[in-house]
Amino acid sequence: MKGAMPILQPASLQAEDLRGVWMVFFATACVIAAFVYALIFYSLLRWRDRGQTKMPPQFKQNVPLEITGVVIPLLIVIGLFYVTYVREVSNDALHANPYATVDVKAFRWSWTFSYPGRNVSITGTPQSPPELVLPANKLTQVNLYSADIDHSFWIPAFLFKRDALPGFPNHFDLTPNKIGVYPGNCSEFCGLDHALMTFTVRVVPAADFERWLSRRATAQCCHGERAPLGAPVEPRASARQNAAIVGLRCHPERSISPLAKCGVEGRPSGARLARMSRAAP
Questions:
Q1: Nearest in space to 4 (alpha carbons), one of 148, 222, 181
Q2: CA–CA separation, 85 vs 91, rounded Å?
Q3: Which pLDDT band, with edges at 50, 70 and 90, does 266 fall under?
Q4: What angle do CA 267, 272, 275 make, to 5 degrees?
């Protein structure tokens, strides 16, 4: 979808809805512009200089015309306000049971994308922007936070932008409906590396999304990319015992050893864990 104009090819259900607002405004602007230019050219032709010496007809007021010039613009503004309000209320409404939830934290100068309950978290840097993975045709609730100053979360293909303000979380729903990769960035100037505060959004089928979450959680849990959020770690336990504790949080669905799922065969008993503890440096 690179090079495509988002207004012509929106990539989410919410964007398709908001595109209608853009089109209404654009059509209204075209009609008004055509009317104004028609009056200008009519005046140029009708009242052009014909070499006459007398003054053209003069008048001080035209009440019907003045009333019309006030009422019609007022009706146009009310109509545009109504169209905008209805669409915004619909798009700002949060659904009770989203398919997925993503916590987005903005900080100087990158982003952290966390998937609550899935033990997956991706943190970027200005030199290595993070990737937000979303399921296609599924509702995702986004919880937006700021760790320091004002930022703004913007995905042009979704026709959506929302401020990330410290101390004031924002929440909204997204339903991507086109598979692909889309750019995103911070649209609120936030300091030195603001221009590098970018990210990408990858929309994949729901089945691929679930597989990606599973692989990512396993990698972060078992291969040390990042400890799962909220995993209890005992300060006096050995490294292997803590690995077992963390692994249980990663793999609660089966009653086998988390170390076995990470490549260590067997199901260690309490005695074996004790031996592992003594053997650990």
A1: 181
A2: 10
A3: very low
A4: 150
Q: Kindly report the CATH class assigned to 100-219.
A: mainly beta
Measured between alpha carbons, how far apart are the two ends of the chain, in Å? 53
* Residues forming a β-bridge with 100: 140
Residues 6+ apart with CB under 8 A from 209: 100, 133, 134, 135, 136, 138
Contact 209, 133 (CB under 8 A): yes
Query: Tens digit of pLDDT for each residue in 192-249?
Result: 999 999 999 999 999 999 999 999 888 877 655 443 333 333 333 343 443 443 444 4
Give the pairing type, strands 180-186 and 120-123: unpaired
CA–CA separation, 281 and 137 (whole Å):
50
Token pair in block for residue 270: 């309490």
How many whole angstroms separate alpha carbon 21 and alpha carbon 128?
35
The overall pTM is greater than 0.70: no
Q: Which secondary structure element, helix H or strand E, spans residue 110, and what is its range?
A: strand 110-115
- 165 touches 155 (CB < 8 A): no
Which single residue is written with the structure tokens 């952290």? 112
> What pairing do the DSSP bridges indicate for beta strands 120-123 and 160-164?
unpaired
